[in-house]
Write a structure and sequence with these properties.
Layout lengths: L18 E4 L3 E6 L10 E2 L4 E2 L10 E6 L4 E6 L11 E7 L56 E16 L2 E8 L8 E4 L3 E8 L10 E2 L19 E7 L4 E6 L5 H6 L3 E7 L9 E10 L9 E3 L3 H5 L5 E4 L5 H5 L2 E4 L3 E10 L4 E6 L3 E5 L8 E4 L1 E4 L4 E7 L4 E7 L11 E6 L19
Parallel strand pairs: 1-7, 8-11, 9-17, 10-15, 16-20, 19-27
Antiparallel strand pairs: 2-5, 3-4, 6-7, 8-9, 11-13, 12-14, 14-15, 16-18, 20-25, 21-24, 21-26, 22-23, 22-25, 26-27
Length: 437
């Protein structure tokens, strides 16, 4: 890092040095890193790409022959690293067309490399994959009436293989090994001290941007944390509401899509109205190299993300997280509250409960304004809402995005309600099944 940017340095400490050569020269580059994040170097015009390197891997070397003159770009191809500063220039002087000047048998690509196929075969399923789905009942208890105080949180960013779908795994980037990350709960007026630690096993730099924070890019400016390091920020919760937090390290969409998002609730001084059950649900859109349902270990697809063409949509990180792995449950007559957010990074949600009506909606996470009797509420990427409703009839209620094609891509959650059926509320009058969705 130099002046807040990620860069290449030469032996003299020059930032992103201009590399100079003549046509016909053979160049050997030795690359090393003193920190845990993984890097590489790419020079597309000469078909050069190094192996990834880090402090753990030790140095790597590439050797190639320059066969044409001009100005050529070199950069790091790890997502986001080029955007944050790892880019320089190779200047080659000599004849404009000098392919004949290259020595016989010269290698114009990284040693041992081969041209990549248009579509790479999917890797084998990760045998060490674990569940990354956040339990929707993992909601901190209401804080009650109390004076503002200092609240301390510690969060670790962890990269790990996780279960995405049946027979399908993915390399998730997480806050505390779960998607979404832990729900934080504070009071308006509290001072929060948050320490972010990046696991030593990580290959990427990570950070945290909390939408509840005023200043410092929401904390993202001062929490760019390399593997094995920690950084701490302190901020005051100045506005009540439900707010998204996410990683703010380039390539930001990659970090978010891979699972780095969560919610922080800032309660008003008087707290929120009491309910019987509280749940924590977040929606994400995920972009993979192969179509949904392909068995194996899916890779992140930067082009699909750029074109906003998700392969999967998820509630709490994986397909089936809230229909198979975890179930939300309530009893007839209880009041239910869902803290709902959209990590994204790109797609809005038309949040809807099939067979229920939201009695209260704290639209856009604003606690100061309440809408009543809402069928479907729109939540923007990077936005949140709180919905309250009373369950008056038993059954299985599906929470969905009412852009209903997304259900087939993984976006469904189940709320199971048990108790007596009141025929005044609902009564099937024939044996045939019927649904309005």
């Amino acid at each position: 890092m130099a002046d807040g940017k990620m860069v290449y340095l030469d032996a003299k400490g020059q930032v992103n040095p201009v590399l100079r050569a003549k046509v016909g020269d053979t160049i050997e580059l030795t690359l090393a890193s003193g920190e845990g994040a993984e890097h590489d170097i790419v020079i597309p015009d000469f078909k050069v790409q190094s192996k990834p390197f880090s402090a753990a891997s030790g140095p790597t070397t590439v050797r190639f022959t320059v066969t044409q003159s001009g100005s050529f770009t070199y950069y790091c191809s790890i997502p986001g690293h080029r955007q944050i500063g790892m880019e320089g220039v190779l200047e080659v002087t000599g004849p404009a067309d000098a392919s004949a000047a290259a020595p016989k048998g010269s290698n114009t690509a990284v040693l041992g490399s081969a041209a990549a196929p248009a579509v790479k075969p999917i890797a084998a399923v990760a045998t060490d994959a674990v569940s990354i789905a956040m339990d929707p009942t993992a909601v901190p208890k209401p804080l009650g009436q109390r004076a503002p105080q200092l609240v301390k949180y510690s969060i670790e960013t962890v990269e790990l293989a996780g279960k995405l779908d049946d027979g399908t795994t993915f390399t998730y980037w997480t806050f505390d090994k779960k998607v979404p990350g832990p729900m934080l709960r504070v009071k308006k007026g509290d001072t929060i001290e948050l320490t972010l630690t990046n696991a030593r096993s990580s290959k990427m730099i990570h950070s945290i941007d909390l939408h509840a924070v005023t200043g410092g890019h929401g904390g993202g400016e001062h929490t760019q944390v390399a593997p094995g390091e920690s950084k701490t920020v302190r901020f005051k919760a100045m506005n009540a509401g439900l707010y998204v937090y996410h990683c703010a390290t380039p390539d930001v969409p990659h970090h978010i899509s891979a699972g780095m998002y969560g919610l922080i609730l800032v309660e008003p001084p008087e707290g929120l109205p009491k309910v019987d059950r509280e749940f924590y649900v977040m929606q994400g859109d995920l972009y993979t190299s192969h179509k949904k349902g392909t068995k194996g270990h899916q890779a992140y697809d930067t082009d699909k993300a750029s074109d906003e063409l998700p392969t999967y949509y998820t509630f709490n990180g994986s397909v089936g997280a809230l229909t198979k792995e975890f179930r939300m449950q309530a009893k007839v007559g209880e009041t239910v509250r869902v803290y709902f957010g959209v990590g994204g990074p790109n797609k809005s949600s038309a949040f809807h409960a099939i067979g229920e009506i939201f009695g209260k909606v704290y639209s856009e996470g604003s606690i100061s304004s309440v809408r009543r009797d809402v069928q479907t509420t729109t939540v923007a990427p990077g936005g949140a809402t709180i919905v309250d409703f009373k369950v008056d009839y038993p059954g299985k209620y599906l929470l969905v995005d009412h852009a209903l094609s997304r259900v087939a891509k993984g976006l469904a959650a189940s709320l199971e309600v048990t108790g007596p059926a009141d025929s005044a509320v609902y009564q099937p009058l024939s044996g045939g099944a019927h649904a309005d969705h």
